[in-house]
Design the sequence.
């Protein structure tokens, strides 16, 4: 009975962990899309500033110095957009250059972000047939099997019959 329950636990964890590479891929795609859109906005702003004889910093300062509250707010919003673009670009570069173990270790960071939450909301399960997917599934199976097997032994310990000890007399 222990082996059946441990096997079921192993299969459950194998299926769960095998989903991580797919989630990471969907997250990376969403992140890449966000970076691409922010790049368009940033380049458009920089082009407009350049046509006005300014660089990005000077253009933002001009927005901030405006007596018009709307323009001042737009300058603040654009500065936040540029900061987000830099942050997401750096994150995307780290993810694209990371090995499977590093990606798995940074899972909490994926889930904590706005893009990570939206990815999880729209996540489509799949079992990737890549080496990475197979390794996660295999590791999940072994871990799940060992944990449930150990838990089963612990829980059933009080109910085990004690085997008599036979002593050899000389």
Sequence:
């Amino acid at each position: 009975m222990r082996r059946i329950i441990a096997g079921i636990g192993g299969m459950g964890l194998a299926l769960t962990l095998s989903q991580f590479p797919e989630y990471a891929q969907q997250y990376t795609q969403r992140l890449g899309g966000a970076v691409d859109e922010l790049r368009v906005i940033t380049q458009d702003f920089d082009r407009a500033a350049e046509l006005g004889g300014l660089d990005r910093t000077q253009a933002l300062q001009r927005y901030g110095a405006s007596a018009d509250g709307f323009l001042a707010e737009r300058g603040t919003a654009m500065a936040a957009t540029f900061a987000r673009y830099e942050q997401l670009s750096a994150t995307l570069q780290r993810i694209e250059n990371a090995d499977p173990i590093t990606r798995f270790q940074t899972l909490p960071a994926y889930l904590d972000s706005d893009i990570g939450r939206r990815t999880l909301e729209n996540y489509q399960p799949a079992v990737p047939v890549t080496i990475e997917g197979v390794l996660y599934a295999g590791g999940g199976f072994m871990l799940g099997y060992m944990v449930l097997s150990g838990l089963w032994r612990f829980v059933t310990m009080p109910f085990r019959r004690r085997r008599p000890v036979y002593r050899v007399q000389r």
